[in-house]
Design brief:
The complex is a heterodimer of chains A (about 300) and B (about 230).
Chain A lengths: L1 H17 L1 H38 L2 E5 L5 H12 L4 E7 L1 H11 L4 H10 L7 E6 L5 H10 L1 H4 L2 E4 L1 H46 L2 H9 L4 H38 L8 H7 L1 H25 L5
Antiparallel strand pairs in A: 1-3, 1-4, 2-3
Helix pairs in contact in A: 1-10, 2-8, 2-10, 2-12, 8-12, 10-11, 10-12
Chain B lengths: L1 E9 L5 E10 L4 E5 L6 H8 L7 E6 L2 E2 L5 H8 L2 E5 L10 H11 L4 H14 L15 H13 L5 E5 L7 H16 L3 E6 L2 H7 L2 E6 L2 E6 L7
Parallel strand pairs in B: 3-8, 3-9, 6-7, 7-8
Antiparallel strand pairs in B: 1-2, 1-4, 4-5, 9-10
Helix pairs in contact in B: 3-4, 3-5, 4-5, 5-6
Classes of the chains: A alpha+beta (about 300), B alpha/beta (about 230).
Chain lengths: ~300, ~230
């Protein structure tokens, strides 16, 4: 058994190196396929990051009356934080609100004078609520409306004016994710079909060889084995080339498009997620190469 | 040893490729099958190799119905038969040595056996110095000698040669026939199909003549008569 396995490995490697042009064409097509698969992984990361950063910019602000005690506001904060739909609640005290307002209008002398003339702080405390998903804001607002202790001290919630924008954004994110997934699946399927066809074409060119192997009494495993080994070698080489291709590409993209992608650096993603990318790209190459060879040889063993 | 019992093979359109063939071949015989193209010679060999199944009738090899063998055992059966083809059918990306060694590897022979037997076989077919050549670096006659080497290396019970001299010049034809005669004298049954009258007549062995899927003559010391 060990002897057969060793011979199959050796025959596969020899066949791969000696079938120069056919092996080269197979590696070339598989490399393109794996680059498409890898690019879709990176694109998906960019898409997810962009959508997350847009989602993170959405929040609902709850403004409290100036008469509301800090302890009452903090109690509302605690209750909000216990809600399953709430991701994060940020408290801004009255003093902080005033400070922020002054900083924001530091060049607007008239407004600052008017504020000084009031004597008292006219701004109430506020809570900035981030939901886990934009579609959950309605539930957060409903909770605040139903909570009598909270609603009695709330001055206003900016959900109503944000509602349309939030809903549109939720729909847009949902549609983008669905479309992205559909495109990824479509491209992956198309690439796999092309790679399978290439490997099968390579095996088709060896069909006479396979028939001779059968007639000299080789078992199906002994015939199929070297082709699978050659397919695995082609997949491995293609995977490594594709992975190496992404090094300079992501480096340049990280350098050139980081600002455009909202701070998302593709090169950092490539380096940090290298084991994952290695598994996806090289793993796909190995699986594609071996399965395509297995299926490709099978049709010529049907006697 | 080989027995065709009322074997008929019909094409899909119902035309007979073989019609009611009954034929017996004893061990150590040298049998030439002659006939025009389309007479059914190659179909007969395919039946023997279990490459194609008869429509009716049975093909026996050493009392075993070859078409009742499960697919998983076919390769064991085929190791008992050494095949030689008109177009040589060597594996193009293997050297002469490797082509012969492949048949031994496929039969599960050990590396030391291969290392000792293949050079011996190469010498036997007079290719001792060309073991490292690929098929495209060899002449037609040399390629056919490699093919014969591959066919005999596992010491099969039968050598089946389908038009083995069809692509060769007279000198190479003579050499191939001499090798096949030598193999037969060493105790291997040889079954060849041929169009070469000179080969058949010079042999003076059993000749089976086929016409339109039927056996029309079967002479123990026959001549090429069509």
């Amino acid at each position: 058994m060990m002897m057969t396995f060793k011979r199959i490995l050796s025959a596969g490697a020899t066949s791969f190196t000696r079938s120069g042009l056919v092996s080269f064409a197979t590696v070339l097509i598989m490399t393109v396929t794996l680059i498409i698969i890898g690019a879709l992984v990176l694109l998906s990361a960019v898409l997810t990051n962009t959508l997350t950063s847009i989602q993170n910019k959405v929040d609902v602000n709850v403004y409290f009356a100036t008469t509301a005690e800090e302890s009452q506001v903090l109690a509302v904060k605690t209750r909000l934080e216990q809600r399953p739909e709430v991701d994060e609640v940020t408290y801004t005290s009255r003093d902080q609100s005033l400070l922020t307002f002054r900083e924001k209008h530091q060049d607007d002398v008239l407004t600052l004078q008017a504020l000084d003339q009031l004597g008292d702080n006219p701004l109430g405390a506020s809570l900035a609520v981030k939901a886990k998903d934009p579609t959950l804001y309605a539930a957060v607002v409903q909770f605040l409306t139903d909570d009598t202790a909270a609603s009695s001290i709330i001055d206003r919630i900016n959900y109503a004016q944000n509602k349309v924008v939030i809903e549109r954004l939720s729909n847009a994110i949902d549609a983008t994710q669905r479309a992205g997934l559909a495109i990824v699946i479509l491209f992956v399927i198309a690439s796999i079909i092309i790679a399978l066809a290439t490997v099968r074409l390579a095996i088709y060119s060896a069909r006479d060889e396979i028939s001779v192997m059968r007639l000299v009494g080789a078992s199906n495993m002994y015939i199929r084995g070297p082709f699978i080994v050659a397919g695995v070698i082609a997949g491995l080489i293609s995977g490594l080339i594709a992975l190496a291709f992404f090094f300079p590409v992501t480096w340049y993209a990280g350098y050139a498009f980081s600002t455009w992608l909202g701070g998302f650096n593709l090169f950092t993603y490539y380096v940090v997620n290298f084991p994952f990318l290695f598994m996806v790209v090289v793993g796909s190459g190995l699986v594609l190469g071996s399965i395509a060879s297995f299926l490709g040889v099978r049709r010529y063993l049907q006697v | 040893m080989i027995y065709f019992d009322k074997v008929t093979k019909l094409y899909r359109d119902g035309t007979p490729a073989l019609e009611d063939i009954t034929l017996s071949i004893a061990p150590k015989e040298f049998v030439s099958i002659v006939g025009h193209s389309g007479a059914g010679k190659t179909t007969l060999l395919k039946m023997l190799l279990a490459e194609d199944a008869p429509t009716t009738g049975t093909v026996y090899f050493e009392s075993t119905d070859v078409h009742s063998l499960p697919k998983s055992l076919l390769h064991h059966y085929r190791r008992k038969i050494g095949m030689v083809f008109q177009d040589f059918r060597l594996i193009p990306n293997k050297t002469a040595y490797e082509n012969i060694a492949f048949a031994m590897e496929a039969a599960g022979r050990h590396d030391d056996e291969i290392a000792s037997d293949v050079p011996h076989i190469l010498d036997l077919v007079d290719l001792g110095s060309k073991g490292g050549h690929f098929p495209h670096q060899l002449s037609g006659g040399e390629q056919q000698r490699v093919a014969i080497g591959r066919a005999i290396v596992n010491q099969p019970d039968v050598i089946v040669a389908d038009e083995p001299t069809g692509n060769l010049d007279p000198v190479n034809t003579y050499e191939i026939v001499e090798i096949l005669k030598k193999v037969n004298e060493l105790g291997t049954t040889v079954l060849i199909t041929t169009h070469n009258k000179g080969v058949v007549d010079a042999m003076g062995k059993r000749v089976i003549t086929m016409e339109r899927g039927r056996i029309t003559r079967d002479d123990a010391h026959g001549q090429y008569i069509l």
